[in-house]
Input
Amino acid sequence: MSGPALHLAVEIDGDGSHPAAWRRAAHSPDHLLSPRRVARVAAIAENAGFTLITLDDGVLPPGAAPDPVGRIGAVERAAFVAASTSTLGIAPTVPLTYAEPFHVSSQLASLDHISAGRAGWVVTEEERPEAARAWGRPLVADADARARESADGVEVVRALWDSWEDDAVIRSVATSRYLDRERLHYIDFTGETYSVKGPAIVPRPPQGQLVVLGRPDRVPAARLDVALVEGRDLPSVATAAAAAGTPRVFAEIEVALDTPGATAAERVADLERHAAWSDRGRLRHIGSADRLVALLTELSRHVDGVRLHPLVLDEDLPVLSRLVLPALSEERLVARPLPGTSLRSTLGLERPGNRFAAAAPAAQEDAR
Output
């Protein structure tokens, strides 16, 4: 555990975790993809005191007709939100099953520069066969093969972030030197399906390494900063958290809260007439804000944070902001991120040293 604070993340992709959430949204469907929409939701989360927002993504549409199925890329949305926020952590989802790790590294490093060190990365997989066709790549159908692609991809991305040392950029107009070539490094990665030499084309991120979140059963725990664990009840979550083996652990929770206009159960029943709220093996809370506060208080004994998946963002996020976070703050279970603080610092994670800079003195000593 990182201390008394329970870090709260919230997923803000689409209109909510229910596939028919758009039917109860406070805007018309055509506004879902507008910049104003994502900026407004992020502003609510930041003002409420959330540590982190995440933005789901994938190469395929996030649903099927008659529901809205469009989305803008998570990295692009994250970059837009970064420019309009100041304390909120921002972590887009970027699957590695088919994406090129070199390009992923550049995108995410750029996001960390844009956000002044508030960026994270949620690692996932592309499981549907149609994704391979969309990428124009051979199908990765086996779960073990997808896990291998994720593990290799995270290793490559992390190595590329280190391929520039922190002081590689000189910017000396007087001497016409802008880079120290001795502080740029080839990563020379060779995996089962590809190799990458490097170095990166973007300087090392402000955090050194972005905060990497993912499921420890899909990505080796040693390559994660935050494990996202699931379980349908508290004992299952506690067991998964104890076995995670990562510096920080966040529990996945789906939430539907009582609102002034309807109870949580009534809201769920209304949406279930149109589509089923799929069971993804996560802890699910359907009820009052007070009961959610009690649940989060109990969870704080086992995890460092939670990632909330609201049923309908426009209905649940205001209740979270008005009732849940203030109650947790009064109990000193949550802490609002401070201006000028990186996401790593907010989570109590040290800024890692550069693997190549650390190796250089040892190599010089061996040469003697």
The longest strand covers residues 248-257. The longest helix spans residues 143-162. The mean pLDDT is 93. The two ends are 44 Å apart (CA to CA).
